[in-house]
Amino acid sequence: MNEYLDNARRNIQRTMNSSYHSLSEVASMASSLAASTGSQLYSSLMSLKAQVIPSANEPISPVPSASELGTSTIPSSSQQIRLISVVCGFPKDIGMYPDYARGQFGEDAWFRTSTSKADALGVADGVGGWRVYGIDPGQFSRFLMRSCERLAHSADFESTRPEQLLARAYCNLLEQKKPILGSCTACVLTLHRDSGILYAANIGDSGLLVIRNGAIVCRSLEQQHHFNTPYQLAVPPPGQGLNVLTDGPECAALLEFDMQIGDILILATDGVYDNVSEDLLLQVLTHASGVTDPVKLQMFANSVALMARSLSFNPNHESPFTQNARRHNIDAPGGKPDDITVVLASVV
């Protein structure tokens, strides 16, 4: 396990110790470094490359721009705090999802956006069991996150009510003329700029952690009906409502927390939390405290995603999922292969 942590540390330190003359040169180096780190970690698995994700209105380009790396496009006053956010992830099955799709890693989906009042982030994890019925689980999660992103810019968006944003996006799903069937877990959050308060609504086993001064000071509440069966929003096939597990948006666990400059926020799907312990996350992300350069922050996100990806395929890894299964008298050794989505943000 120390091997993964050492790789992550070298990855981060190499970037932080380098001095560059322009942001485009930094971004180019960050992209190539992500590729080389992936080669080191996955030489025995497959050749992977960490993806630096563009923002909503930017095209994909070989050299990421500042906006592609997650800087907020909303100017902030000296009285306001804001988020600098970046994203990294991998689909579980690279062969099934060979092409990049904005806002999606396999069956996982995500969004991030900013308004004049708040920053908003979200992740959703499509429930893979639908695939045996010929339903793409990623379509459900992707539509939900895209709806959240769009609705965050509506005139009546309440930046202190992420649960309302989630509920409206879910209703949007239900109202489609051509039903979008499936289910997903979801975690949506907003950071109110003036008050500095973080608001979150979580359904299921995706979630967030806030790291401050080397300690986890806030975490979302995981919701499980029973082991490996999280709460989930769902749209069942017609006539099958009684046979499908469905939890409404009103079931979301709500959270409020006063954020401070220098805090690090990680929002991720269970592909991260099932494979990377909180201790490992702390050891890597504590060093991200106070980072305002999106390129450097991107390297921290890459390191977490790469570590989660590698550990998920390690049959000898004593994963959090394995430990939890053991508490339920279930034998599930090793990592848990899954889609990986990491949204990492620094409060500035």
Automatic annotation (TrEMBL):
Q: Which reaction is this enzyme known to catalyze?
A: O-phospho-L-seryl-[protein] + H2O = L-seryl-[protein] + phosphate; O-phospho-L-threonyl-[protein] + H2O = L-threonyl-[protein] + phosphate
Q: Name one GO molecular function term.
A: protein serine/threonine phosphatase activity
Q: Which residues form the PPM-type phosphatase domain?
A: 93-347
Tell me the SUPFAM superfamilies matching this sequence: PP2C-like
E.C. numbers:
3.1.3.16
Q: Which key words tag this protein in UniProt?
A: Hydrolase, Magnesium, Manganese, Metal-binding, Protein phosphatase
Q: Which InterPro entries match?
A: PPM-type-like_dom_sf, PPM-type_phosphatase-like_dom, PPTC7
Q: Which cofactor does it need?
A: Mg(2+); Mn(2+)
Q: Which GO terms describe its cellular component?
A: mitochondrion
**What Pfam families does its record include?**
SpoIIE
The family assignment reads: Belongs to the PP2C family.
User: Which protein, by its recorded name, is this?
Assistant: Protein phosphatase
